[in-house]
Amino acid sequence: MVSTSMDPVRIAVVGAGVVGLSTAMCVSKLVPRCSITVISDKFSPDTTSDVAAGMLIPHVYPNTPIPTLKQWFRETFDHLFAIANSAEAGDAGVHLVSGWQIFQSIPAEEVPFWADVVLGFRKMTKAELKKFPQHVFGHAFTTLKCESPAYLPWLEKRLKGSGVLILTRRIGDLWELHPSFDVVVNCSGLGSRQLAQDSEMFPMRGQVLNVQAPWVKHFIRDGSGLTYIYPGTSNVILGGTRQQGDWNLSPDAEISRGIFSRCCALEPSLQGACDIREKVGLRPFRPAGVRLQTEFLAQDGRRLPVVHHYGHGSGGISVHWGTALEAARLVSECVQAPRTPTPKSNL
């Protein structure tokens, strides 16, 4: 690399959703004497993360071993739990929420792998299940909700406070960042179709409704994950959809009606909800799951280390801090590698 060992290592993080900003934060904590620039064409409130409900209930990724997934989830839960228990909680949009996950038939796994990470996990009682006549089994627990429209600006503010530069720019090719940067972290989500030439990446369209129903205090999630009611600080999120390969960002009125009627079937009081707003997000889906990997781009004998950190699908917020810590460790390895080419011996 160009710089001498005395210069700070110049690190670019591409992408400013929850994955990009948390990665920049973890790198700034883990890699000493580096200068970090976050580069993105979109920032909150215009990211995919801004549409996410932000409930901490992890998704399974085919190529990620359960112990790894559990570690990512636990690290994320611990990080957000500390924020929820601090004076920053309101600004950061992080709070505890209790509720139920309900099933129409008994699930294969009655106790999921994450049961001892969330708080107070137990099977629902017969009395509780009376609320849901179509369902025969359920989990009751307390978890965290991380509201991106507050959390992302809060992270941005903290990054700026620690000297991180924030740059609005569209990147067409990661090689553009050479030689201005020594290491690049690719957190571009769906943008990795182009930036990492990853043809496995595709959108998983999600449509939700934001409604005013302040009397709804408990979350309700159907075990399939397709119908959910997630109360937040300023509204209740009703969902949802998983439409594979659909790039349409315009709300579909028929889908909205379907979501509303499915949610009202679980919580009839929602009939009285008002101020209904539709939101659409394209989740960065990758069949194999999260890609956490270092790649060395090379042109004309010059190298640019790229740490890829994308492909979280619909489970990004649940594991974002854990995967960001892992990405930061990969960056740290790149930085510790010899930064100047070793001169060839004359022997």
Automatic annotation (TrEMBL):
Keyword annotations of the record: FAD, Flavoprotein, Oxidoreductase, Peroxisome
PROSITE patterns associated with the record: DAO (PS00677)
Group of enzyme by EC: oxidoreductase
Pfam families in the record: DAO (PF01266)
SUPFAM superfamilies, per the entry: FAD-linked reductases, C-terminal domain, Nucleotide-binding domain
UniProt xrefs under Gene3D superfamilies: D-Amino Acid Oxidase, subunit A, domain 2, NAD(P)-binding Rossmann-like Domain
Protein's recorded name: D-aspartate oxidase
Gene name of this polypeptide: DDO
